[in-house]
Design a protein that fits this description.
Helices cover about 0% and strands about 60% of the residues. It is mainly β. The strands form 2 sheets. Strands 2, 3, 5, 6 and 7 form a 5-stranded antiparallel sheet that branches. A two-stranded antiparallel sheet has the order 1-4.
């Protein structure tokens, strides 16, 4: 993986009150198949707070290009856009 260990994601709450949420992570291969996850971290966002998360990439993935997706859900509904990033593993 040439030093690449995972994905960092930062989210900011725009809510007026504290929200119990889940920060989700999924990793897809070039055929759009999930190869890691979905997995999440349970978190409490205070109103207006910003939190950062690190999602480790599983070791041993084959060389290739993957897409990592992260998003936040509150009460089972997405409260952020799904953000994607291309990841090359060689």
């Amino acid at each position: 993986m040439n030093g690449f260990k995972g994905v960092n994601a930062t989210f900011t709450s725009n809510a007026a009150t504290t929200q119990n949420a889940q920060a989700w992570f999924e990793l897809f291969n070039s055929a759009n198949q999930v190869v890691q996850g979905p997995t999440f971290v349970q978190v409490s966002f205070k109103a207006g707070s910003t939190q950062s998360f690190f999602f480790a990439i599983a070791p041993g993935l084959a060389s290739g290009t993957y897409t990592a997706k992260v998003f936040v859900q509150v009460a089972g509904q997405a409260y952020s856009a799904t953000y994607s990033v291309s990841v090359a593993i060689s």
